[in-house]
Design goal:
51% helix; alpha/beta; single chain; 4 strands; 8 helices
Length: 161
């Protein structure tokens, strides 16, 4: 009886060890972006920094900080804002690989600012755009005319899935 229980315990332990030897699950458990056993994610550090903006910046990284910078610039400009955003595929095509663009709903979650992609039914309301160009990086541009908006939509549309 005890011998059977011991064999079952060893078998279960071996299965768990083999499961976490699979690279995806190993990365999830121990890796650089570990969700479970992350050395950089200490309870003491979290208790000393209770501010939600600090925690979001720590969790979401550089892209979140860039979105907050965009928010600051758009609020300073004043008025209502509907931001036309490119996709990450477009950014990569322009040679910008250090920043990924999120979906419009995530951008709203991070900043509280409405945004659309080029295939959205609301795209005609866009009055600002995130413009990416090779060698010049990323900038925010106010859309002043319908032909300007149409040219940006035609530029972004092939990259929207």
């Amino acid at each position: 009886m005890n011998f059977t229980k011991f064999n079952l315990l060893l078998t279960a332990t071996l299965i768990v060890i083999l499961y976490f030897m699979i690279p995806f699950y190993n990365e999830w458990l121990w890796g650089a972006n570990a969700k479970v056993l992350n050395v950089n994610n200490s309870m003491l550090d979290q208790m000393q920094n209770l501010d939600t903006s600090y925690r979001k910046a720590y969790r979401f990284g550089g892209s979140y900080l860039a979105y907050q910078d965009m928010k600051t610039k758009l609020i300073k400009a004043g008025g209502s804002v509907m931001l036309l955003m490119p996709t990450t595929d477009y950014m990569k095509a322009q040679g910008i690989t250090d920043m990924s663009m999120c979906e419009p709903s995530e951008f709203y979650y991070f900043t509280g600012i409405n945004s659309v992609w080029a295939n959205s039914p609301e795209v005609a309301r866009a009055n600002w755009a995130v413009v990416a160009a090779k060698g010049r990086g990323i900038s925010l541009k106010k859309i002043k005319s319908k032909p300007e908006l149409d040219s940006l939509i035609n530029l972004y549309k092939p990259y929207v899935k």
